[in-house]
Amino acid sequence: MPRCVGSKPDGSPCERIVPGSQSYCYSHDSDRSDERRRNASRAGRSKPGREIKDLKVQLESLANDVLNESVEPKVGAVVNQILNTRARLIEVDRKLRETEELGRELEELRELVERDSGRGEVRRSPWG
Ligand SMILES: [Zn+2]
């Protein structure tokens, strides 16, 4: 199988498997840079790491406010529920993006398999 001739950011070779007619994988194909930019900006919009950090800060200050009685426990409990819901949404969002990424990789693999069978190179999969 041919390998991508692109380089990783650290300068080492990429070596991802690519279709026979191509020299570059999805990450290094300049024809697909628009597609990559769209996907990257979609991923960049939600920034789960920063959101989780914000939530931690809010939880910490909420806990302090309840402890020093500047916030009523009743109010603190409701705010905690809201923060909890936001935490769940961040998790759902992360899983969605993970699934999308897996879908793209599956699509690349499917293209490879279909190209191979199109050339009449029958490869037996290890799963029969
Ligand atoms: Zn590559």
Q: Gap between N and C termini, in Å?
A: 20 Å
Give the names of the bound compounds. zinc ion
* Helix fraction bin: 55-70%
Computed structural class:
mainly alpha
Largest sheet: none
How would you describe this structure to a colleague?
The chain is mainly alpha-helical. Helices cover about 60% and strands about 0% of the residues. It has helices at about 35-45, 50-65, 75-120. Helix 2 runs antiparallel to helix 3. The protein is elongated and about 70 Å long. The two termini are about 20 Å apart. The relative contact order is 0.10. The site of zinc ion has 8 residues, from loops.
List its salient traits.
binds zinc ion; 0% strand; 3 helices; mainly alpha
Topology, please?
Layout (H helix, E strand, L loop, with lengths): L32 H14 L1 H20 L5 H46 L10
Helix pairs in contact: 2-3
The chain binds zinc ion.
In short:
With 128 residues, the protein is mainly α.
